[in-house]
Every structure is written in structure tokens, then in C-alpha cells.
């Protein structure tokens, strides 16, 4: 059994980016933990406590569909879409804390050049907290893509360049059901963050490597032990 940690800036990023892969890890007997950095809604005008709770319940429902146990889900309280106002060390320490708690061998997180600032800060904090020292349990770090952020970044920035593809054909239905738990966050086609586009991306990523459906990742690090 492997310990897997998903770092997501907002509830729904984890399903959009690697929902099928999460379900696959669970199916294979791995322990999956989720760390949300923000509540994902507080930056919106007119937000009330009930809106925050509603997003939290959506996350719990989505992750239950994927098979993640509630005790392995951590909801952070960093400012939504404003993580850049914080000293980076505060974010890094929060990552270090959960790494110490769950001892992950594998981490999935955001791409470094996503348009969303919270995504970028989360990525930087993960890379800082998980420096490749002999004491670190983290041996693999992968970046996932989030529609309406990863592909919307500036053309002056490096683009998401996937070099790891995970077949999720068997787990597509679970990803689809989990995503529906976040239906209020989805948009009508042809918006990038629509159900149709999410499925089209899974089909494209799969077809690129001869699979029916896949999720794609950019490898940040893989360390193989001598044994």
C-alpha cells in the first residue's frame, strides 16, 4: 500500500485534475489523503457561511464517490484567490505539517504556471516543503491540469507538457459522478470548465497514447531507491 497526498487549492480541483487517478489509487489499495488550501468560494461577492459549508459538503460527497475516507480530508483556511498576500513560509509549513502526518510517497498538485494564483502558490509551497532530502518520504511529485486555469495561462509562460498518462477508462464513471457533486461550479459548454470539455480532455489525453480515457500529468520528480 502506498500513501498518496493530493494538494488542491480549491475543492473541485482534485476531481478536475486527478479524480480518476484518485479512484484508481483507492481501487489498488492505496491510502489517499486530500489537503485543500482554501474553501474555494470566499473571494466571491456576497458569500455567506452557508456557501462555504455547501462547497465543503460538495467536496465530501465527491470524495466519498471516489472512495476517500473523510478522516483523510483536510480543509485549509487560507484566503481564497488571495494566497499571494501570505508569506510563502506559512503555506510551506502547512504542507510540511500534513506531509509529516500522512508520510506520503506520492504527491499530486497543481502545475506551476496555472493562471490561478492559488494554484501557483500551492505548487511552489509543495516544491519547497518537499525538497529532495534524505529524510523526506516523498519520492514522486506529479502536476495535474485544471481546465479554465492550466490552459488559460499566458503564452509568455511555459505550457503544461504532460509526460505521464494514467488510464482512467475503468474509473471514468466515478470521476463523472464525483464531478457532478460540484455541479454548481461547472459551466455550460463551450466553457472550458464544462462536463463536455472535461470528458473531451479525458478522451484526448487517452487517444494521445492509445487509451480510451486518461488523465495527464507533468512529472516534477521520481526518485527510485536502491532496493
The strands making up the biggest β-sheet line up spatially as: 3-2-1-4-5-7-6
Mean pLDDT comes to 96
Radius of gyration: 16 Å
CATH top level label: Alpha Beta
DSSP helical segment count: 6
Distance between the termini: 17 Å
For the record, what is the CATH homologous superfamily label?
LmbE-like
- The ordered string of helix (H) and strand (E) elements is EHEHEHEHEEHHE
Q: Choose one word for the global shape.
A: globular
Strand content: 15-25%
Which structural category fits the helices and strands?
alpha/beta
Report the uncertain regions.
none
CATH topology: Rossmann fold
The major pleated sheet works out as: 7 strands, mixed
InterPro entries: GlcNAc_PI_deacetylase-related (IPR003737), LmbE-like_dom_sf (IPR024078)
Pfam families: PIG-L
Protein name: GlcNAc-PI de-N-acetylase
Amino acid at each position: 500500500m502506498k500513501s498518496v497526498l493530493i494538494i488542491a487549492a480549491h475543492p473541485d480541483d482534485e476531481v478536475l485534475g486527478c479524480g480518476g487517478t484518485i479512484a484508481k489509487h483507492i481501487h489498488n489499495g492505496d491510502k489517499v489523503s486530500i489537503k485543500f488550501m482554501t474553501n474555494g468560494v470566499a473571494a466571491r461577492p456576497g458569500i455567506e457561511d452557508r456557501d462555504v459549508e455547501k462547497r465543503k459538503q460538495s467536496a465530501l460527497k465527491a470524495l466519498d464517490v471516489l472512495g476517500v475516507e473523510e478522516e483523510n480530508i483536510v480543509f485549509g483556511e487560507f484566503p481564497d484567490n488571495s494566497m499571494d498576500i501570505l508569506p510563502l513560509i506559512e503555506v510551506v509549513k502547512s504542507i510540511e505539517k500534513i506531509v509529516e502526518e500522512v508520510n506520503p510517497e506520492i504527491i499530486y498538485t497543481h502545475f506551476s504556471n496555472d493562471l490561478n494564483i492559488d494554484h501557483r502558490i500551492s505548487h511552489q509551497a509543495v516544491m519547497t516543503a518537499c525538497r529532495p532530502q534524505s529524510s523526506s518520504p516523498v519520492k514522486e511529485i506529479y502536476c495535474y491540469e485544471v481546465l479554465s486555469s492550466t490552459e488559460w495561462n499566458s503564452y509568455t509562460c511555459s505550457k503544461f507538457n504532460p509526460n505521464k498518462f494514467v488510464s482512467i477508462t475503468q474509473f471514468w464513471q466515478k470521476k463523472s459522478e464525483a464531478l457532478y457533486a460540484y455541479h454548481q461550479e461547472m459551466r455550460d459548454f463551450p466553457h472550458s470548465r464544462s462536463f463536455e470539455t472535461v470528458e473531451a480532455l479525458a478522451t484526448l489525453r487517452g487517444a494521445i497514447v492509445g487509451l480510451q480515457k486518461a488523465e495527464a500529468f507533468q512529472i516534477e520528480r521520481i526518485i527510485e531507491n536502491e532496493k
